[in-house]
Amino acid sequence: MATARDELAPLSARSTILSLMLGAHPSPLTPADLARAGQFFGIAPATVRVAVTRAVGDGDLTRTETGYRLGERLVQRQAHQDEAVHKADKAWDGSWEMAVVVTAGRPGPERAVLRDALKAHRLAELREGVWTRPANLQRPRFSDPVLQDFTATPEQDPGELAASLWDLRGWAREAERLLDLLSSTPQPALRLATAAAIVRHLSDDPLLPVELRPADWPAADLRETYRAYQRELSELAALPR
Q1: Per DSSP, what are the bridge partners of residue 148?
Q2: How far is CA 39 from each of CA 9, 46, 47, rounded to the nearest angstrom?
Q3: What is the pLDDT of residues 141-170, one digit of tens each?
Q4: DSSP secondary structure of 10-49
Q5: Cα(174)–Cα(86) distance, rounded to whole angstroms?
Q6: Do residues 206 and 175 lie in contact, with contact meaning Cβ atoms separated by under 8 Å?
Q7: CB burial of residue 222 (10 Å; 0-12, 13-18, 19+)
């Protein structure tokens, strides 16, 4: 029977470099910095150079006079990750955001892009074309020309509604698994792979108000664990040249 550790493998050289930069928020990293980081994770300098060249070619990294920075797409991804890790909600008044798709007949790819964007904004689909979530987040609402935006108060019990929209028990089980895995994994490459899985999982946290979270909701522990790992990465990125 496979164990939790068997489910994760070291990241590729490219993913290792990008995960380091996404997690550590470093100043621009020079080729020497990246080679040193690669060796820490068991990646040869030549392999790091190839990975960085390809990342630059694809726009994931940009090269400046002082070193390499994240490309624009990954800067946006970093902001989404930071929202997950450093959650900033407000007192909840019981109201819900609601976004209703009011334009029909759009091509499938356009619908898929909109669905992904709504999910990234942490809304859930109540029924086809109707998306909602508690209005407890301190951020602009998602807007799109094909949507009509509302504030609503459901008549259904809000806890039951939240449980029907998100698999909260499943999310909590996976969070506990990842917490256990990171605490029992000493190898740097596997720790990085586990941390990457943690931040992906945090990105799927619906960020519910405390009134709607199940008892013993592990999101706060998972965030603090990842923040501690970010400090590890920052120390690695800041080691003397």
Answers
A1: 100
A2: 17, 10, 10
A3: 888 899 999 999 999 999 999 999 999 999
A4: PPPHHHHHHHHHHHH-PSPBPHHHHHHHHHHTT--HHHHH
A5: 19
A6: no
A7: buried
**Given pLDDT bands bounded at 50, 70 and 90, which one contains residue 81?**
confident
Q: What pTM does this model have?
A: 0.83
* 216-233 per-position pLDDT tens digit: 999 999 999 998 988 888
3 state SS for 147-173: EEEEEECCCCCHHHHHHHHCCHHHHHH
To the nearest 5 percent, what fractions of the chain are helix, strand and coil? 55, 15, 35
- What does the DSSP 8-state code read for residue 187? -
Of 160, 145, 166, 49, residue with least CA distance to 102: 145
Q: Mean pLDDT highest for which of 1-5, 12-16, 138-142?
A: 12-16
- Looking at residue 234, its amino acid is S
Tell me the residue type at 83. Answer: E
Question: Residue 176 is which amino acid?
Answer: E
Nearest 5°: CA angle at 201, between 199 and 203? 70
Determine the pLDDT at residue 7: 60
Cα–Cα distance between 188 and 42 in angstroms, integer?
8
Domain 10-88+167-241 has CATH 1.20.1050.10: no
Q: Where are the domains of the chain?
A: 10-88+167-241, 96-152
